[in-house]
Amino acid sequence: MLIPTATLRAMPRIAQLSRLAPITVRRTYATSRPPRVLVTGSLGQLGSSMVNTLRAKFGRDNVVASDIKKPTDVQRNSGPFVYADVLNYKSLDKLVVDYGIDWVVHFSAVLSAVGERNPALGLDVNINGFQNVLEVAKNHRLRLLSPSTMGAFGPTTPKDNTPDFTIMRPNTIYGITKVHMELLGEYYNEKFGVDFRSLRYPGIISADTPPGGGTTDYAVDIFHAALKDNSYTCFLKDDAMLPMMYIDDCIRGTMQLLEAPEESLTQRVYNVNACAFTPAQIADEIRKQFSSEFKMDYHPDFRQQIAETWPHSMEDNAARRDWAWNPQYETSDIVAVMLKKLAPVYQNHQVVSQMAAETAVAQ
Ligand SMILES: NC(=O)C1=CN([C@@H]2O[C@H](COP(=O)(O)OP(=O)(O)OC[C@H]3O[C@@H](n4cnc5c(N)ncnc54)[C@H](O)[C@@H]3O)[C@@H](O)[C@H]2O)C=CC1
Ligand SMILES: CC(=O)[C@H](N)C(=O)O
Fold it and tell me: Which of 50, 103, 149, 240 has a CB 3.0–4.6 Å from the CB of 236, allowing a cystine?
């Protein structure tokens, strides 16, 4: 029997009033089979890790990866991959129908630095692309997870322990488009019952895929530069404190929110916090763990102005309470894992081979 959305939405309250056990509302798929998930922007920094995790959980063929870039052979052979431009509503619509999609993880976006350089592109992809995805989610009754960012906050937002609900007046194209996304997602949830979910990531650090043109990219670039040249020129100032997170925490948290029962969500957009550091602090940690000779200098550019408008840390009690958000990686853990994962890539470079020789002599 097809139950109208309005009835479904009212059910928990009806159950409560008649003192019946609360009814679990499942609106996106009716069988016990795993959900079929479409990931947009799957070749970006976060997309490929998310696709791997989703496939491990729901099965290779239940996760359709998509992007407008060409995948590597490994990416192409690891499961279904399709070309999908989020600016083209009809092709998204067709994809959802052809593959019987239940959930969309929407990762296509233009990040903060690229958005400031090319505002028209940022507006187009982040606003029109998101609107297309949201319409498809509405028309096919899909669950939609689309991440937001600490960049949705702005210069007048309280900087420390920034709460979920506060002043949001960003002054970057990226931030403006993300506030638009959050509000429109909430609107579609309230008006049309779209199961929209979002979380505000800090800067994400990963050794697996290069970052896509953001203000926090330095915190990935620095490891490659350390291993290659034992020095790095940072585009932010030494004291630019920003919240950061390791990719494994990011993907685990995203899966937790994606899979959370709808009735456990008390809001649609959640802050998630993990750790925070300045460029000078991470350089010190690299000196401690890798090479005391590591040299860092600073040539701040336009990204410093962006960083100055973002929080130093975010308060994330609601995420911890509603879907058990619990990050594992502190700054020192991130430095250790990044150096460990990237060292083999640079093993033939002088810095790493010299360090290995010194370690062997010391032992
Ligand atoms: N990486 C980070 O530190 C953070 C990321 N986020 C958010 O997470 C999501 C994923 O970010 P990343 O993977 O880092 O971004 P990314 O820039 O690495 O990847 C974005 C992907 O979107 C694709 N794309 C661009 N235009 C497209 C179009 N018209 N149609 C389809 N695909 C298109 C690109 O080809 C790229 O593969 C974004 O919403 C971003 O705002 C939020 C905060 C931090
Ligand atoms: C924090 C983000 O959203 C992203 N990494 C960026 O720097 O643009």
Answer: 240
